[in-house]
Structure formats: structure tokens, C-alpha cells
Amino acid sequence: MELFDYSLFASAIRMVSPILLAALGGALCARVGIFNVGLEGLILAGAFSAIVGNYYSGSVIIAVLTGAFGGVLVSLLFGLATIKFKANPIVAGIAINFLVLGLTTFGLRAIFQVKGAFYDKDMTGLPKWDLPLIENIPVVGNLLSGHSPLVYTAFIAAILLYVFLFKTVVGFRILAVGKNEAAARSLGLNVTVLQYGAIVASGVLCGLAGAQLSLGQVTMFTEGMTAGRGFIALVAMMLGGSHPIGMIGSSLLFGLMDALSIRLQGFSMPTQFTAMLPYVITIIAMFFLKDRGLESQASGQQSSR
Amino acid sequence: EESENNSSTTNEDSKKIALVLPEKMGVNPFFQQMDEGAKQAAEEFGVELKTIESTDHSAIEENLRVAVAEGYDLIITSSFESEDALKKVAAENPDRQFAIIDTLVDLPNVQSVNFREHEAAYLLGAAAGLSTKTDKVGMVVAMDIPLMKKWTVAFEQGLKETNPEAEFLVNYVGSFSDPAKAKELALLQASKGADFVAGASAVGDLGVFEAAKEQGFFTSGQDIDRTEVDPEHVVLSQLKGTDAAAFETVKAFANGSFEPGVVEYGLKEKGVGLTYVTHESKTPLHSFVGQEAIDQVKSLYDEIIAGNKVIENPLSE
Amino acid sequence: MNLQRKIQQLLKPMLQPMIAVLIGLVTGALAIALVGESIMNTYKVMWDGAFGNFYFLTATLARATPIILVGLGLALAFRAGVFNMGAEGQMVLGAVCAALAALYVPGAGIVKLLSAFLAGFIAGGLWSLLAGWMEVKYKVQLLISTLLLNYVAVLFAGYLVAEPFQDKSGSAALAQTPMLDQAVWLPKLFAGMSVHMGFVIAVIGAVILYVVLQFTSSGYEVRMLGKNPFFAEYGGINKHKVLLFSMFFSGGISGLAGTVEVLGSQYRYVEGALTVPGYAWTGLMAALLANSNPLGTAVAAILLAALQTGAMGMERNTEVPLEIASVIQGVLILFVTAKFTLSWWKVKKKAGDVNGAV
Amino acid sequence: MTYRLEMKEMTKKYGDFLANDGISIQLKKGEVLAIVGENGAGKTTLMRMLYGLEQPTSGEIKLNGKQAQFFGPQNAIEQGIGMVHQHFMLFSDFTVTENIVIGHEPIKNGFFNRKMAAEQVQKLSDQYKIQVNPSKKAGDCSVGEQQRIEILKVLYQGAEIIILDEPTAVLTPFEVDELLKTIRFLADQGKSIILITHKLPEVMKVADHVTVLRNGRVTGNVKKEDTSIDQLATMMVGRELQQLSERNQLNGEPLLELEAVSIKGKSSKPVLDQLSLTVHRGEIVGIAGVSGNGQSELIQAISGLTTVDQGDIRLSGTNLVGKSVAFRRNEGLAHIPEDRFLWGAAKDATIEETGVMGYYHKKAFNKYTFILKNSFREVVKTWIDRFEIKAKSVDDKSGNLSGGNLQKLIVARELGFETDFLIAAEPTRGVDIGAMEYIHEAILEKRNRGDGILLVSSELSEILLLSDRIAVMFEGKIVDILDRKDATEERLSVLMAGGKEDESSAKNTTTA
Ligand SMILES: Nc1ncnc2c1ncn2[C@@H]1O[C@H](COP(=O)(O)OP(=O)(O)OP(=O)(O)O)[C@@H](O)[C@H]1O
Ligand SMILES: Nc1ncnc2c1ncn2[C@@H]1O[C@H](COP(=O)(O)OP(=O)(O)OP(=O)(O)O)[C@@H](O)[C@H]1O
Ligand SMILES: [Mg+2]
Ligand SMILES: [Mg+2]
Questions:
Q1: Which top-rank group of organisms is this from (chain A) (predicted)?
Q2: What is the ipTM of this complex?
Q3: What is the DSSP string of A250-272?
């Protein structure tokens, strides 16, 4: 059995897109000094609202929009707690995870009268886009073509975020807030507005991550379907130093290792060990990326405050 | 208050039954059915039923104890996870009746309802072996835990007995509730040439079904007849009558015929089965499997219920 | 006057979470009202489920036990200024090693029991130390490495009990070790109640940790390291040594959390039994809620546990579905650290203090 | 002509505490107003109200004769007020240009036009003769350069009134001169400047008017021409300043010996280059030098906060190289650090906790590893009495102390060890003249008792006042050592800038 084939990479790209989207969202929060461990909840909210939107409108576009909207609603709640009421972001983030899990499960029951999972075979998911021209290139075509629009969105969003943060004025100010909030305040920058802005944007990104999960990868919602992706996104964010391009790298590394670990299941090694692979490789990667993410995150010493 | 209640049995007209589930039923059709079956019987036979879901492992014992304290006459629980807790609680309350579905607890006041899923898994494997055109068959399994061997080992046995050439691919999702990953695994197996991929990944099966639809291979579901979901691709379903088990238990208790001991549900008792072989299905048989294969599986089934063939429980070595 | 001050000082760390919980309750009431339930009744049922009578009180305390210990372990790390996110892995490894020691160490019950404690503590401690060592020696960020090491630990423990050390007796369907010998079970505090000796250990642990941190030299070194590592170094404190020790004990205490769960309540290691209830996350919240004060952490842990047992009670006794219980729980926690009495001056003062460059 | 700025009867209360009590100041166009006063007199508070960071309890602010109000920094900036904070508000990862234009960035096609920004900064820099390197990272700039960035930032924002809160506290003498020239130049260009400082000679050099504050009130409002340093000091402290004690003549043995100590550092040039130095008992050796020439590394090498690559360090004959900080402290080293917030204290710790560092394991304060708080408390109280440290209680956070009072606490702590040897780095930075007097006196007293002191200071006057011998550092080396009586500010300045002295005088002095 060969370990590396196109489908490995294609599958990695697919699997990684919600993680990348959420990591970008987390990075935006980190860039304004808020460490967001509520990504898991935000993605789940997005996944659920996307399905709701899809069910009622029958349109995938509206579904994606409602997914993003769901993410935004929850992120606003998170923002309210952390920015307005200065709640500890980690506690608030964990609470968000609990809260959304409860809300979506309840929503399943209240809206769809089902428990556990909502699946409707008439529901259409996101289309698969074949990229003209690229599609026909032998290897690359297999890899890059035929993904859902949100997969492309994830990578484009990373690049846009890069441009936004490092080339525009508002991005510049966001960076400033994260680097030195006190100084930003003393300059008269409206730190609060920038923070809310970043949090809302992160809600959008996580909402899209959820939509990709519930409409792109599969077309259904199941209770707790994020299955820890929010935390992986958090790791990808930190490993990528909250830098959009870095995060493409770190989430791809993780995705590839994850896809590889699945293929290793075939060999006579306990699955527990193959499943460790992505985590172990990520730890090893950290030996080479020592100072990553240090500056940009508010989490470092805040615990002792 | 509680300790007083402990000894006194309530003398109200209707009997009170508690169904203590070891998990939140949400992600698991297995528990959903059980709940439905019990509810239906409760309604039919005029007993009061309360379903209590446990949020986690340590809540099971707690919930059992509270159910005792609150004076339920029969406390039904389920599955291996509750084993330890039930052993403790039942032993401490010898005057109370208990039942446990899907595992064995050997106590004088406990009825154990046991399923022989492996028999059904064997049949499913056999059907797969007879149907596959590529001689490659896959299975997407929730987690690599001992319990799942009841599915994987017996399935492989059935597969190999009917089709020695067939290759068996197995992949583990690592979660009971990750359809996205289950789908990727199914796609992977399909890309390796499997034309039949059995789903055994709880909620993940929905992901397997989607993969089948997308790539045009065939698949099967678990517990209830899932062929309705997508008759074109979900061509078989391995059945498990937890609803019947719960129904029967409640019914027996309501009628006064409830007895401690072991109640077995295997192929013979029609507690487990396979669509088209042991149970009818609303959807017509798909040509991928074909009547010929079904007939062959049926003869295997006959051998088993006749006792000529014994499928070992992979867990009891 | 002096006494009054002392009392105030002692209460202060606990006051904050209390006020916060109160605020959370108000928001929770909103959630209940939205579902159309009676607020007072729902809260009453919740209260009863947590503290309603002696039985429920002990159930709450039993549930709080691992949370307290995890919280204490984390509080210690936080005090030293390191963000240990790896309590889950440390706890799980501690639990599985304790179970194995209790099963396979030869000798009398007490020998087994002590080796189980030792094994649990050391396993958790070493796992945590690994992250500390990578940080000190190779500057591998502890926040990420501990998060990742959780997965590795949980998977490894899962392997141990699914393969080599699996319980082959009985149905053999679960990934779990065999049942421990009765002789190593931690005694229950009251017959028929789930709270066990582990709770006493946790409370004593909280007091010891408080005393050590607050009154001893080592505690002082830990705290100063957390407050300003440069100052600590300048003052002659061996930064790395204190950090590694803190991480070792932090993980060790988390390991103890797993140990007492195994010895006091499950009597074996069952895969998932420690991770699914989210003890690690709850412990993390407890420590953060209490600002890493050990006594406050214990109180916060009990409150959080009460919230969970209360929610179970609510599920059993009202029509509020379990999911709504977790929604209410979430809302309560969301605002639990909120600072509604924010003094502007403090923010401004901070603004003045931060030195931009250098 | 109307005043450009008038603040009338400004009062600010913090709870019951009157931080500002009816303070009035006036400022004309092109004028420099100096505000002086002890630590905690209320200077910063007054400025924070002007910059919109605090709202006055009562009082009136007029800009160009018109009533004005400031709701926040943004608002103040819009009305032409700029503030250079005592602690710089810079983004160390950003370039100089980015730091200056932030908040008013030039935009092209919706994008941040960094090129145009750099040009504008360069133009501004030329216009006001304030030299900066627009493309350098702020974090890589020297303190003086960072200060210039702050001033340019304020100018870029279009400030007409510029507040400088203790701008010279961290500057080298050369940088101070430059800054004072800049201030004068800006005033001549029509800007109005408020200068807060503890250094009275600077006031005399650059100010037009001086307002003196004490305990939140104005105790003096004078024209520069009509006053003197002594008079200002008296108004500030409320008493006459005293002369330092006499220094007794001591010829002690070598105490601290450094031999050919080198530290490689990151760049190609070593930060310490074969440095040798001896401090004797009963002697204060001052280290003069432009900051960044290895003084910090020298201090850290001696105290054990950094490792040396080569060379010997001995204290009373005991080798210190490779030994821990704790070991060195036990051997008799005390250390007043150059940055009190970074090294000297933990802001979140209480005063007592900051004080007990280094004592907590000593026998007198430790029993069975328990710290004997009560015994130690007594000691802290004596420090508070002796140095007149203004603290609410020893349980108050050390971050709540004003810089001067925190510094006194640190000095008291380090002197309290009664070690043979003391490193005193910038012992009076940011400290008012009253407190400075105490600290100088304490250091001298220690010397007179026969202990050795290495004094590192960017304040030449301090070096000249206290040192018995003065070593000048340049590029990681000691270029010369002068005797107290031979040293003048001019000679030192030449040496500090890397200039060579004639051979004979150098020889004379090294043999002291
Ligand atoms: N937010 C506040 N709350 C309470 N008291 C305050 C506050 N801010 C300042 N003070 C007090 O007001 C007084 C004046 O402080 P201010 O910062 O204005 O002093 P300063 O003259 O700038 O001192 P320094 O020379 O040390 O910089 C101090 O005694 C201080 O304790
Ligand atoms: N929590 C507080 N309560 C009362 N006064 C405070 C508090 N925090 C700070 N202050 C006062 O605010 C004033 C300003 O503080 P700041 O740190 O600016 O002092 P500073 O003397 O200017 O410091 P330095 O010049 O050394 O940097 C100080 O006088 C201090 O006493
Ligand atoms: Mg000041
Ligand atoms: Mg000051």
C-alpha cells in the first residue's frame, strides 16, 4: 500500500480548511490581545446555523451566510464578556464551548425535532468547484481542483488576512493593539472598537469553518461534530505565530500528518500510536519554531495576574 | 429522607420505571431506540417511565442511586459502561429490581439482556463478501476499542468465509460523532478500490453514506434499517433491536412476568439481524447485493439458528 | 480591627468568585426565562440537586474532588507564571499508572495503595516536567506543548488499557483495567455516599498548598517567579529549578486527581471516564476563577461541581432538558469572572506603567 | 496677548485624597514651562487631566482664551495637545516611521502607504532637526532615539502644546543636551512646552517659567530669571538641602577584581572586551559612559545575571565565574539594579514581598522554611522610617509606590544586607532631589564604613559627586580611570565619546 498519493494531499486540503479558517479567526483575536479558546464553540455555532439556513432557504449561499452570522452572534457574546465585562478570556472561552454545545443540541430538538444528528437527503451541500485550466494539469489538478468554495475561501482568506494586517491601516492598528494595548490607547486609537471588530471577524471566519464542516465536508449536523477541531485550530494558530502564512503552513502540516496517520492505520501498529502522529510531529516542529507566537498572544503570563 | 425511601416501596397504583442511560442519548441511535421502545411499552401498559441521561461516566452511579432513592420500582440501565455502577448499586439494594440491556450482570435482582451482535455482523460480512465485485471491502469503525471487535472480527469472518479472496480494509474515526472524518475514511477506502464500505461509526455513518453517494460505492448502516436514507447506496443494514429489548423488559415488568437472569437476543430470538435476511425492508433489494447473495446468507442464517454453526463472540476468548 | 482585617483578607479571594456567581445566576435566570420555565423553581431544583440534602451534598463533593486537585495543580503552575494547559494528560497518565501500580505491585494492601499514590503523582509530574523541560531547555512554548501532550497521553493511556492491560474478565468490551483489589479502595466517608477519602486529601492538599505558597520560602520563590521572573532571578532565585519543580508538582497534583478517582470512585481505570466529564477544563476554570488562590480554587471547584450536579438534578426533576442545563451552566460561567465593578483608574494606571520599547 | 493654555484651580480627588488641589498654570506661545516637585506632588496627575486621561474633579481649562474640555487622548490630540509619556509608548516591533504615523497614517488606494509615511517622517525630522532613522525598528533604537521618536510623533500629530513628563530621566548627558536644544528650538518655532523634571539645572537651562508643586498645591510660580536652583529646591522639598557627609580616607584592600572579562554578544563586536577593574574596600568606583557601551552587561556579569565567555571575577578572593546569583549574594554582593521595575521589584507583589527578597532564607527570618513575616515587618518599618518611604501600608502593592519611593525601598533593601560590596546602578533615576539626597548619603555612609561600591550612572554629576575613582567605558572596554580630583565633566565627556587623552594624565590616575 502506498502511503503518499494525490488523494492524501487532496484529503488533507479538505480536512484542513475548517481548521485553517478557525485558526485565522483565533489569530485575529490573538492579534488584539484576546486569547480565544472558544473556537470550538464558534465553529459549532457556524455549523449549526449553516444547516438551519440551508434547511429553511434551500440555498447554499444563504446557508453559508447564516453560518457566518451564527458565528458572529456567539463571538459577540464572547466579546461582550471579555471586552465589556473584562471576564477572563480563557474562562469565557471554555464557557462558550459548553454553551454552544448545549444550544445546538437543544436547537436540534427544538427546530428539527431530532436528537443527535440532523440529516436530510434532500439537503444540498456546497458544490465542488472544478477550477478551469488547473483542473487539467496532471498532479496539481488532482490536488487543487474539485473542492468546495469554502476550501478556496480558507486559503484566500489567509492571504487576504495577510494583506489586511500588514498592508492596510486598520490592520496596522489591529497589530498595534495586540503589541501594546496601553500605547494604542494613549494614542487615542479606539481599542475597544478594534477589538470588537476583530472578534466579529473571527466569528465570521469560525462560522465559515463551521459551514465548511456541515455543508462542505458532509451535509448534516451532528451534536459536537467539531470533535476537537477548535483546539487543533488553536494549536495551529500558536504554531503559526498568528501569522496568516505561518498558519497555512502549520495547519497543512497538521492536516497532512492527520491524513498520513489514517493511512498508517492499515499497518500493524496500534491505532492509538498512529493517531498520536500529528500531535507528536507538531511538538517536534515546535523545536524548530521556538519563538513562534510569543509576542502576539495575550495568554502568556496572564494566568498569574 | 433518602435512606427512609430506600426501604419503602411505593404503593401507588402505577409502577414507576426509570431508564438510566449511561450517556447522553443524543449521538447514539442505540439509546434513542431503547428510549422509544421503553416509552412505547410504558404507554401501552400503563406504567410511569422516566428517562435519565447521564452526562458522563461518574454520573451513572449517581443517577442509579438517585433512582433508587426516588423509589423507582424497576431501574433499567444499559451497556458495559454501567456494569460497575450497577453491580454496586444493585448489590446494595437487594429488594429492588434492575435490568441491564446489552451486557451481563450476575446478581439475583438483575435481569441482563444480552445481544449477540457478532452474529449479525457475521451475516453482514458474508453478504459483503458475496456482493463485492472488486474483492475489496471496507469498514469505518468509530473507535479502536475492544467493544468494536464484535463488529469487525465477526464481519471479517463472514467476509472471508464467503469470499476468501476479499481484502478487508478497516479504519478508525477516533470518535463516535465525527461524520466529516468518517466520510474521509470511507472515501479513502473507496479510493483503494473498496466497492462496499460498512459503516460502524455511530453518527459517523452518515458521513460514510455521503461518501458512498458521492463516489458511487455501496454501504450499510447499523441498528435500524438505514436503507431508507439512500436506497441507491445504503444497501444493507445490520439490525439490533434495542427498542424491542426495552419494550419487552417494560412489558414483562408491567405484566408481572419480569424475572432476574439472562435474556439473550441473537439471531434466533430476532433481537439482531440483517435487512432482507432476517427482516423485511421497505426499500427493495439493491442489485449490487442481489437475491442470490441474500439466499446464500439466508442459508448461513439457518445454520446458525439451527445451532449447526456457532459464531464466537470475539470478546470472550 | 486587626482581626477584622485578617478575616477580610482571608475572605477576599473567595469573595470575588462568589460575587461573580451571583452575577452569573442573574444571567442564567434570563436563559431559564427564555425557555419559559419558572426561574425560582428551576434554581431550587438545581440547588437541591447540588446541596438539597446530605446525599446530594456528598455527591457534589465527590464530583468536586478531582476538580479541586486539578485546579490546585494548575494554580501552582499559574502562580509560577507558567500556563500549564496539560492537566488532562497529566491526570490521565497519573490515573492509569496508579491503577497499574495498585494492580501489579506485589505486597499488602497498604503497600499497593502507597505505590499507587506514588505512581500517580510521579507519572503526572514527569509528564508535566517534560513540557517544562522542553520550555526551559529548548524554548518550546509550554502553552502549546502541554495542549498537544494531552492528546498523546490520552491516546497512550487508551492503548494501555485497550491492549496489554485490558480487563479480559466479564464482557471485556470496555477499554479498562481489571478491577482493583478491595484492599486498595479509598474508604468512603459515609456509608452509601459517594464522597470518599480523596475529598479529604484534596482539601488537605488545598490547605497545604495555600500554606506553602503563602508562608514558606519555596512558595515565595514560586510566587515571585510568577510575578516577575527577572526580579526572581535578580534576587538569587534559580528560575529554571523553580519552574521545573513547579511543573513537576503541578502535574503531580493533577496526577493525584486521577489517582483518587481511580482508587476512590471507579476502582479501575476506564478509558474516557476522566476526560468525558471535562475535569481538566473545570479545574482550569476553578483555578482561574480563584486567581490561583488554593483555598479559593477549592471553593470554586465545589461551586462548579455543584453547578454540574445541580444540572443533573434539574434534568431529573424538571422538564428543562439536559441541554438547557448545560446552556445555563455555560451562561453562568461566561460571566463568572466578569468585573462589573471595574475601576477606571486601574486600567489607566496600567496604561501608564507599560513600557513601550526596550 | 492671551495665553495659549490656562489651567485654573484644577482639583483632582482620588477618593478622599487630593492629588491636585487648586492648581493653576499659564503658558504662552513659544514658551517653556517647567513643573517641578517631589515624587507624588501631583505633576503627572495634572498633565493627565490636560491630556484627557483623567477628568478633573473641578477646575477650568482654556485654550487660546476659549473654554476647552478633553474627553480622551484622541480628543486632546485633536485640540493640539501632545504628550511624551514618562514611560515611552512605543511599539518595539514597529519601525520608527510606523511608530510616528500611527493614528494618522497616509493612505494610498486604501492601503497604508509606508513609503510616503517614511518620506513625511524624514521631512519632519529635517524640519525640526530631530534625527531618527525612519526604517529602524523602535526596539533597536537607543533610549535617546526612542525619545526623539516620541517627540516626532507628537509633532506629526500636529501638537502645539507638548507635554514632556520626565523626559531626561533615562538619557545620557549628551542626549540630555540634545533634547534641551530641541526643546528650545521647538519653542522658538512657536510651540509651547511643558517640561516636568526633577533636575533643576535643566530647568535653569531651558525654562522660561517654573511652577513648583508640593503635596498637590502650587508652592511657587516664578520666572527663570528671578530664581535659583537652591530656591527651587527649597520650594520643592520644604526645607534646606544638606551637604553630604565628609568622606573619610580609607585605603582598603582589593575587594572586587575583574580580569580580562569578555562577553561575546550577538554582533561581531564583543559587548565586554577584556575588561579589567578593581574596586577596593572603602572606595566608590564610578563607571561613566554613554549607555550601550557595556555597562549593563558589566553589572550583569558581576551579579551573575549573564554568563561571561572569558575572564575572572573575584570577590574577596572568591571566584564568581560560573556561580549562581544566590552564591554571589551570599559571598557579599548587593545590587541596586538599573531598572527598578524590570529587575528590582515585582509590581504585583506587596511592598513586604518585594522587600523580603534575599532575606527570606536568612536565619533571622526563616524557621523550618517558614518565612517569619512579623520579624521582617519590623525591619521594613525601619526602612520606611529611615528613608521616609511614602507607603500606605506594607501590604500595598509595590507597583502602587511612586518610582522614587520604590527606589528608596530597593536601596534600603540592598543596603540592609550589609554586604562588603554593592553595585549601585542608576540609584537615583527618576527620583526627586529630596530622595536623591537620602540615597547619596546612604551610599557614602556605606563607603565610609569600609565597603566597596561600584557606581554606574548616566548622571555625570552623580558620578562626580560620589566616586573616588571614575572608570570610563567605551565599546566594552575601560578606556581610562581617573582620580576623583582629576575628573571634570569635560574630560569625562571626551573619554566617553571615545576620544583619547594624553598619556601622562592617564598614567597618573590608574595608580590610585
Ligand atoms: N488613580 C489614583 N488613585 C489614587 N491616588 C492617585 C492616583 N493617581 C495618583 N495618585 C496619587 O496622587 C499623587 C500625585 O501623583 P502624581 O503621579 O501626579 O505625582 P508626580 O508628581 O507625577 O510624581 P513623580 O515625580 O513621582 O512622577 C500621588 O500621591 C499618588 O499617590
Ligand atoms: N493604586 C494606587 N493607589 C494610590 N496611588 C497610586 C497607585 N498607583 C500609583 N499611584 C501613584 O501614582 C503616581 C504615579 O505613578 P508613577 O508610576 O507614574 O510614579 P512615578 O514616580 O512617576 O514613577 P517613575 O518616575 O519612577 O517612573 C505615583 O505617585 C504613585 O504613588
Ligand atoms: Mg509622575
Ligand atoms: Mg516619576
A1: Bacteria
A2: 0.86
A3: HHHHHHHHHHHHHHHTTSSS-HH
Asked if the Cβ–Cβ distance from B145 to C175 is below 8 Å, we say yes
Reduced 3-state DSSP string for chain B: CHHHHHHCCCCCCCCEEEEEECCCCCCCHHHHHHHHHHHHHHHHHCCEEEEEECCCHHHHHHHHHHHHHCCCCEEEEECHHHHHHHHHHHHHCCCCEEEEECCCCCCCCEEEEEECHHHHHHHHHHHHHHHCCCCEEEEEECCCCHHHHHHHHHHHHHHHHHCCCCEEEEEECCCCCCHHHHHHHHHHHHHCCCCEEEEECHHHHHHHHHHHHHHCCEEEEEECCHHHCCCCCEEEEEEECHHHHHHHHHHHHHHCCCCCEEEEECCCCCCEEEECCCECCCCCCCCCCHHHHHHHHHHHHHHHHHCCCCCCCCCCC
- Closest CA of chain A from D12, distance in Å: 20
In contact, B312 and B142? CB cutoff 8 Å? no
B84 to C168: CB separation less than 8 angstroms, yes or no: no
Distance CA D382, CA D379 (A): 5
Three-state SS for D219-270 is: EEEEEHHHCCHHHHHHHHHCCCCCCCCCCCCCCCCEEEEEEEEEECCCCCCC
- For residue B209, count other CB atoms closer than 10 A to its CB: 28
- What residues contact residue C100 under an 8 Å CB cut-off, 6+ apart? C119, C160, C165, C177, C269
Which of D75, D83, D89, D90 has the most A C-beta neighbours within 10 Å, making it the best mutation to test the interface with A? D89
CA distance C186 to C163: 27
User: Which atom of ligand 1 is nearest to D86's Cα?
Assistant: 27
Domains by residue range for chain A, with CATH: 6-122+143-303 (1.10.3470)
Q: Which amino acid is at B304?
A: I
Per DSSP bridges, beta strands D107-108 and D111-112 are antiparallel
What is the distance between the alpha carbons of residues D116 and A176, in angstroms, rounded to a whole number?
19
Determine if residue D294 is left, alpha or beta; phi over 0 gives left, psi from -120 to 50 gives alpha, anything else beta.
left
Cα D241 to Cα A186: distance, rounded to the nearest angstrom: 37
Please state the pTM of the whole predicted model.
Answer: 0.88
User: What separation in Å is there between the alpha carbon of D18 and the centre of ligand 1?
Assistant: 10
Alpha-carbon gap, residue B44 to B252, rounded angstroms: 12
Cα radius of gyration rounded to whole Å, chain A: 19
Strand pairing category for A221-222 and B97-101: unpaired
Burial class (CB in 10 A: 0-12, 13-18, 19+), D261: buried
3-class state of residue C26 by DSSP? helix
Q: Annotate C78-97 with DSSP letters as a single string.
A: HHTT-----HHHHHHHHHHH
Q: Which ligand is nearest to the CA of D345?
A: 2
Cell numbers linked to D506 = 592617564
| pLDDT, one tens digit for every residue, chain B (317 residues) | 334 444 334 444 578 899 999 887 766 777 888 898 999 999 999 898 988 888 888 888 888 988 888 889 999 998 888 888 898 899 888 889 999 988 888 889 999 988 888 999 999 999 999 999 999 999 999 888 888 888 999 999 999 999 999 999 999 998 888 888 999 899 989 988 899 999 998 888 989 999 999 889 999 998 888 888 888 999 999 988 888 888 989 999 988 888 888 888 888 888 899 999 888 888 888 889 888 889 988 999 999 988 888 888 887 75
- Residue D65 burial (CB < 10 Å; 0-12/13-18/19+)? exposed
Q: Confirm if C170 and B104 have CB atoms less than 8 A apart.
A: yes
Q: How close A241 comes to chain D (CA, Å)?
A: 14
Which residues make beta-bridge pairs with B74? B17, B97
